[in-house]
Amino acid sequence: MTLLHLRDLSVSLRNRPVFRDVSLSVEPGQVVGLIGPNGAGKTTLMRAALGLIPAQGNSSLAVMKPRVRARHAAWMPQNHEIAWPVTVEVLVTLGRIPHLGAGQAVGAADRAAVDRALAQMGLEALRHRTATRLSGGEQTRALIARTLAQETPLVLADEPIAGLDPAHQIATMQCFQDIAAQGKSVMVSIHDLGLAVRHCSRLILLAGGRVQADGTPEQVLTPDNLRDHFGISAHFAQTPQGPVFQPLEVVR
């Protein structure tokens, strides 16, 4: 079952084309890294796919009714701001709203989903803390946990590891791999190409208003693509611990 299908999707903002004719599908079991230079339109693509902004073309998510879409795809936007002084547990429980009927109380299945999400993000000890009093990195992890508690077949996360320390960056990307291993999928926009190489099964390179490459990390992060779209050279090697990618220098 295809979890996301885009066909000839195009977006213009303030009369300026952002990207055009993007077609792609996301299947179960994938961690898809959406990569590209600043301003390439990665955030816009994810928002358009969800039907949050006007777009030309077709998105299988955008045509869904909001409640149906919320059960199919969870969305973590780039803005990691918590507006209300609720506990971490309450914040994460908000991820269960799409599964509750009108006036329905949180049940055992919902509490179990919240417990799993807190454990995945290492937040059990912080569950009764006020979310707005946490550090920026802890708040980000709480918002990721809220997204995970939604327990949807597809997760779309816009730069979720920005601002996290290295250990929690790795743990979050490993969590996404665990989700994919369950037959679900994650699409994550990411600037850290080293983590993308190690944890994403597929990369989509968006640049110049189009999808420039789509495939495995080895297929996408070629010397030509790195030079033409990122302006860098890099060292790419296979090790017993997995692939290693290290940018080396700016290429003019």
Automatic annotation (TrEMBL):
Q: Which residues form the ABC transporter domain?
A: 4-233
Q: Where are the transmembrane segments?
A: none
Q: Which SUPFAM superfamilies match?
A: P-loop containing nucleoside triphosphate hydrolases (SSF52540)
Q: Name one GO molecular function term.
A: ATP hydrolysis activity
What Pfam family does this protein match (any one)?
ABC_tran
Question: Aminoacyl-tRNA synthetase: is it a keyword of this entry?
Answer: no
Question: Which InterPro entries does the entry link to?
Answer: AAA+_ATPase, ABC_transporter-like_ATP-bd, ABC_transporter-like_CS, P-loop_NTPase
Keywords noted in UniProt: ATP-binding, Nucleotide-binding
**By its UniProt entry, which Gene3D superfamilies does this protein fall under?**
P-loop containing nucleotide triphosphate hydrolases
Question: What name has this protein been given in UniProt?
Answer: Iron complex transport system ATP-binding protein
Record organism? Thalassovita litoralis
